[in-house]
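Action item from last meeting closed. Structure (378 res):
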């Protein structure tokens, strides 16, 4: 299946993906597939989706093409099934049962295309007591234990944007799942359903922590452990100008270099002595407060002390290392992260900006041989 209809490149060139429009983790997962070279056709609904930003700036729709299909119209589902019949992967983010009621669930799609990988992105999963409940990133994180392990013990857990749930526990697990299922489908000729739930993925991210907990190396409370802010040489500190430095000097040699450059060599023995951690934290806090973030950045530049400046989103693209690597790029006047990861042979790129709803209907109808998309002037 598989002549790509876009000008993209990458290891997934030739893979066709249908994305049923939604918000958050589904679109990001489809963007990642598109960044990797897949021909992603986003099926937008008339009037758009709730919480959507201006399509001109929605870079999670880059490298895609868009058609508009009214799934409530009599022939709407059949148009989607025509696309599914020619696709390798379909991605949807409806609540359980909605796709089936619309006539575009796994059964209907597999009847047309037995090899199809049908990826389902939800917060709670397809089964379980909460499966049909509404929710967002923070609510999905809460019962997994992830949210409860972040922050200071005397304060409410902070809100970690929507990165841990939606995108790490959601999008990335969906992408891993559909690519694994695609490998299986190509080997056996049999497609399948991938149930990617944010609660499952977020819980899975903490696998190492659960091992440490079982071994007695992790306390089940906040800011009491090596990696959660409890350790004074793994955390953030305010500088004289109200900015911050991040410290991760865990290993002995890195810790020693950190203290030397900070000017606190007398605290060398505090690394393994938890009873001295409060004194160490106070000393480090006081020392960082004596200089600006940029001054401290210069002090630690070129060292192995594992210290870095905490930058804002607008500052990040100008960091010398990120700039040298091209971690960010400008496309269509929008500064945005470049595709990741990188490949030595099948290079990835941003070849088109955010897909405008319905703008690519004619091209998709031709490239995918789905003439019914053009009905009613599409």
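Sequence:
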């Amino acid at each position: 299946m598989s002549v790509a209809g876009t000008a993209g490149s990458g290891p997934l060139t030739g893979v066709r993906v249908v994305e049923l429009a939604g918000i958050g983790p589904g679109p990001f997962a489809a963007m990642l597939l598109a960044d990797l070279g897949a021909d992603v056709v986003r099926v937008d609904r008339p009037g758009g989706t709730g919480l959507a930003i201006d399509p001109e700036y929605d870079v999670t729709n880059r490298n895609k093409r868009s058609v508009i299909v009214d799934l409530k119209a009599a022939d709407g589902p059949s148009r989607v099934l025509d696309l599914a019949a020619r696709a390798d992967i379909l991605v949807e983010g409806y609540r359980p049962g909605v796709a089936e009621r619309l006539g575009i669930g796994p059964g209907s799609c597999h009847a047309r295309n037995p090899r199809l990988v049908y990826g389902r992105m939800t917060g709670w999963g397809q089964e379980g007591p909460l499966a049909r409940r509404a929710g967002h990133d923070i609510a999905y994180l809460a019962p997994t234990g992830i949210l409860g392990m972040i922050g200071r013990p005397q304060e409410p857990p902070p809100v970690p944007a929507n990165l841990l749930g939606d995108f790490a526990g959601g999008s990335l697990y969906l992408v891993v799942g559909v690519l694994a299922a695609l490998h299986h489908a190509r080997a056996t000729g049999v497609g399948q359903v991938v149930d990617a739930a944010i609660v499952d993925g977020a819980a899975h991210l903490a696998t190492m922590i659960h091992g440490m907990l079982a071994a007695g190396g992790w306390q089940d409370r906040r800011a009491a452990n090596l990696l959660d802010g409890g350790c004074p040489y793994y955390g953030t500190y305010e500088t004289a100008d109200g900015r911050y430095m991040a410290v991760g000097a865990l290993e002995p040699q890195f810790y020693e270099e950190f203290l030397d450059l900070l000017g606190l060599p007398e605290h060398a023995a505090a690394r393994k002595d938890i009873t001295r951690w409060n004194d160490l934290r106070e000393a480090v806090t006081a020392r960082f407060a004596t200089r600006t973030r940029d001054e401290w950045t210069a002090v630690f530049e070129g060292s192995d002390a594992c210290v870095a400046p905490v930058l804002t989103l607008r500052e990040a693209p100008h960091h010398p290392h990120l700039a040298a690597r091209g971690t960010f790029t400008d496309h269509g006047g929008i500064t945005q992260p470049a595709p990741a990861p990188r490949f030595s042979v099948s290079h990835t790129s941003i070849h088109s900006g955010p897909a405008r709803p319905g703008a690519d209907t004619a091209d998709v109808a031709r490239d995918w041989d789905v003439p019914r998309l053009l009905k009613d002037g599409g």
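Note appended to the action item: The longest strand covers residues 39-44.
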